[in-house]
Amino acid sequence: MMKKHIILLALLLFAVSQGTFAQLTIFGSVVDAKDGSGIPGASVIVKGTIIGGITNSSGNFGLMNVPKDAILQVSFVGYKTVEVPVENQTRFNITLEPDVQILNEVVVEAERSQRQRTIVTPMGIERDIKTLPYAANHFFGDELRTGDITDLGRALNGRVPGLSLIQDEQGAGASTTIIFRNVGMPLYVIDGIPLPKETDGKTDISWLNLETVESVVILRGFSPGSIYGVAASAVIVITTKK
Asked: pTM value?
């Protein structure tokens, strides 16, 4: 019995020693595929574990206690994530390729954010929405184009405080008239040009195709219509795609 215990203990110690020797200390660098420059702040993680770190200002890294059969996951914003098998190696030179799709999305989002903050006056002057003394809501066209909605009023319904609709005709696809609580019907401005109202105070925009809308800004407060030379306490500014 004692002999059996000794054998089991020996096997256990052998397994532990093998596990100990299977751990590696590794070093390496993460570089840009375009120019070979080091990428600081890149994440280097042993897949499926909490072992990991980030590269230094030169793009270099070091990790301890890495299993010899581990896989390294290397990532950085704007680059494609790569997986590198350790395969008992201790030195690595890892190249990251720029992720064109992500970079394009970042550029588009930055351009969107910039456009979102401005409206255009009749003189062609851009005004930053944040500098205007009015309550403002802004939407991009693709936010409004949901399902089978083709009417601007229905697209804005439920998104803007105080906005409600009057259905002009019967039927699911009928056009609507937008009104604001305590204000009434808004002034519509398309690409910097204010649209005239009819004798009943309405402005017919049933012809407007949501597919052509780039953004919509709604201004409410003390006469935002004065920007366009019109007395109005609510203005819907529509910018179409160029």
From this structure: 0.54
DSSP string, the chain: -HHHHHHHHHHHHHHHHHHHHTEEEEEEEEEETTT--B-TT-EEEETTSS-EEE--TTSEEEEEEEETT-EEEEE-TTB--EEEE-TT--EEEEEE-B-HHHHHHHHHHHHHHHHHTEEE-TTS-EEEGGGSSSEEEEEEHHHH--TT---HHHHHTTTSTTEEEEESSSSTT--EEEEETTTBSPEEEETTEEPPP-TTS----TT--GGGEEEEEEEESS-GGGGGTS--SEEEEEEE--
Domain with 74, as residue range(s), is 24-98
Can you tell me the distance from the alpha carbon of 227 to that of 232, in angstroms, rounded to the nearest whole number?
Answer: 10
What's the number of domains the chain is made of?
2
* Sign of the alpha-carbon torsion through 177, 180, 185, 187: negative
Between these two residues, 102 and 45, which has the higher pLDDT value? 45
Percentage of residues of the chain with pLDDT beyond 90? 38
**229 within a domain of the structure (yes/no):** yes
Same-domain pairing of 51 and 160:
no
Average pLDDT value for residue range 5-24: 53
**pLDDT tens per residue, range 100-115:** 776 566 655 666 555 5
Both tokens of 5, joined, read 């215990």
Structure tokens, 142: 């693709």
Per-residue pLDDT reduced to its tens digit, 140-181: 888 888 877 888 988 888 888 889 988 766 655 567 889 999
